[in-house]
From TrEMBL:
It comes from Seohaeicola saemankumensis. PANTHER family: GLUTAMATE DEHYDROGENASE (PTHR11606), GLUTAMATE DEHYDROGENASE 1, MITOCHONDRIAL (PTHR11606:SF13). Belongs to the Glu/Leu/Phe/Val dehydrogenases family. This is Glutamate dehydrogenase. The keyword Cytoplasm does not apply. GO terms for molecular function: oxidoreductase activity. SMART domains: ELFV_dehydrog. InterPro entries: Aminoacid_DH-like_N_sf, Glu/Leu/Phe/Val/Trp_DH, Glu/Leu/Phe/Val/Trp_DH_C, Glu/Leu/Phe/Val/Trp_DH_dimer, Glu_DH, NAD(P)-bd_dom_sf, NAD_bind_Glu_DH. Signal peptide: none annotated. Keywords: Oxidoreductase. Residues 173-460 form the Glutamate/phenylalanine/leucine/valine/L-tryptophan dehydrogenase C-terminal domain.
């Protein structure tokens, strides 16, 4: 995918190679005493590009973690950050572990030990390398990592900025947990603002009533599905999970399914919907929008030709293999690429990092001042209101909305929405302006590689 994009760019070959390769990968094997014996774990932290520092990227807990995967995901982070203009290089980490096999205390011991190994080599550091959650990790793990860093760097006033995705009470930011899912929603909203782009997928109208199938009802999939259902009127006609899939053409209640999974460990047995044991088959069902939000490689050369969705938005990282990408492109499927589609997480992580470095919650200084100024205007309008009598009156709901200053959550959403719109527009401009660019993914690569190349050039490399 990278090669396809650079073939359409005019980069010196040396620079092209410099951008492509992964700068470094650190492998750590460490022991933790658990249940009376020492267990050895293998973890990685890979740095793809340091054209901007700190470098940024999540830490994944999964059995499939390996060096190749971590390096590929680190590269994706470089391009993702460049595309959404988050001032970071790309990195990624992973620990080969099945977190469901350990209790909370054991996971804390393992996470702190892994963090210790990375911190002492500056592979976690507010100025150099800032992790975030990924598959299998969340706020809880990030809080342990932040605390571990603070213990090892007692005088670092910016310690909290060493990791993002923390809980609010430990230096997190409002709206981070749902940020990636929210970003997927904003990405789709922006796509649906451009009739020309919708037509490329054979779609028309608005998001309202569109049939959506989502794979993976975890952090990203759950939030994307529930926002699209509750706020945009989409019908979630299929949910694919580890143990199978649920299908209901009338639309599934996403919260009820999530509660069911939490109680029963899977989707099977959920009342009122058809259960399909081989969940992967549901990827091939007819729908308007397919959202793979679980893991990579799920759409590959074996099933791509049968995937019917005209629009796929890659909420997960790398859910479509390169071979499947070719098949789908030839079929005319429009793919909103991962590099853009799931960048909501890193965007809000960027806001969290800025908040930690500035040591103040967004909106704290200006919110009441903003309210006082709007109050002045409302008072003046009300004076006019009395003068004009019944002919004209301010609606109470307008007054209430207009008077309220923005809190942190509103500011975060506004920043995320703006980021997703601008990044989409930068991709579509290249997609439409250059006939040799046939898809959004190639356009996304061209935009982001162009930005990384500009950074290297500015450094004199
Ligand atoms: P998560 O662990 O919260 O959720 C993953 C979900 O997928 C779980 O519900 C799991 O049961 C399900 N799943 C696992 N294997 C499956 C299978 N074979 N078939 C169907 N479902 C399966 O993880 P997440 O944080 O939501 O991440 C999902 C994807 O999004 C990953 O590719 C991750 O790299 C990417 N991503 C996450 C973020 C973030 O902020 N969390 C940001 C960017 C990208």
């Amino acid at each position: 995918m990278f090669n396809r994009a650079v073939a359409l760019m005019d980069l010196p070959p040396g620079l092209e190679e410099k951008i492509r390769v992964c700068n470094s990968t650190y492998t750590v094997r460490f022991g933790v005493r658990l249940r009376g014996q020492i267990q050895t774990f293998t973890g990685y932290r890979s740095v793809h590009s340091e054209h901007m520092e700190p470098v940024k990227g999540g830490i994944r807990y999964a059995m499939g973690v390996n060096q190749d995967e971590v390096e590929a995901l680190a590269a994706l982070m470089t391009y993702k950050c460049a595309l959404v203009e988050a001032p970071f290089g790309g990195s990624k980490g992973g620990l080969r572990i099945d977190p469901r096999q350990y209790d909370e205390h054991e996971l804390e011991l393992i996470t702190r030990r892994f963090a210790y190994e990375l911190i002492k080599r500056d592979l976690i550091d507010p100025a150099q390398n800032v992790p975030a959650p990924d598959m299998g990790t969340g706020e809880r793990e990030m809080a342990w990592i932040a605390d571990q860093y603070a213990r090892m760097n007692t005088t670092d006033i910016n310690a909290r900025a060493c990791v993002t995705g923390k809980p609010l009470n430990a230096g997190g930011i409002a709206g981070r947990v749902e940020a990636t899912g929210r970003g997927v929603q904003y990405a789709l909203r922006e796509f649906f603002r451009h009739p020309e782009d919708m037509a490329a997928a054979g779609l028309a109208g608005s998001l309202d009533g569109k049939r959506v199938i989502v794979q993976g009802l975890g952090n990203v999939g759950y939030h994307a599905a529930s926002f699209l259902r509750d706020e945009d009127g989409c019908l979630i006609t299929g949910i694919i999970e580890r143990d199978g899939a649920l299908v209901d053409p009338r639309g599934l209640d996403v919260d009820a399914v999530r509660d069911w999974i939490a109680k029963h460990g899977g989707v099977s047995g959920f009342p009122g919907a058809e259960y399909v044991e081989n969940g992967a088959l549901v990827l091939e069902q007819a729908c308007d929008i397919l959202i793979p939000a679980a893991l990579e490689g799920v759409i590959n050369r074996t099933n791509a030709a049968r995937v019917k969705a005209p629009l796929i938005i890659e909420a997960a990282n790398g859910p479509i293999t390169a071979a499947a990408d070719d098949i789908l492109r030839d079929k005319g499927t429009v793919i909103i690429p991962d590099m853009y589609a799931n960048a909501g997480g890193v965007t809000v992580s960027y806001f969290e990092w800025v908040k930690n470095l500035s040591h103040i919650r967004f909106g704290r200084m200006q919110r009441r001042a903003e309210e006082a100024r709007t109050r002045l205007l409302i008072d003046e309008l009300e004076r006019l209101d009395r003068y004009l009598g019944d002919a004209w009156a301010l609606r109470p709901e307008f007054k209430e909305k207009y008077l309220r200053g923005s809190d942190e959550l509103e500011l975060v959403r506004s920043g995320l929405d703006d980021t997703m719109r601008i990044a989409y527009q930068s991709m579509r401009e290249v997609w439409h302006a250059r006939p040799e660019v046939k898809d959004l993914r190639t356009a996304a690569y061209i935009v982001s590689i162009g930005k990384v190349a500009a950074s290297y050039r500015a450094k004199g490399i």
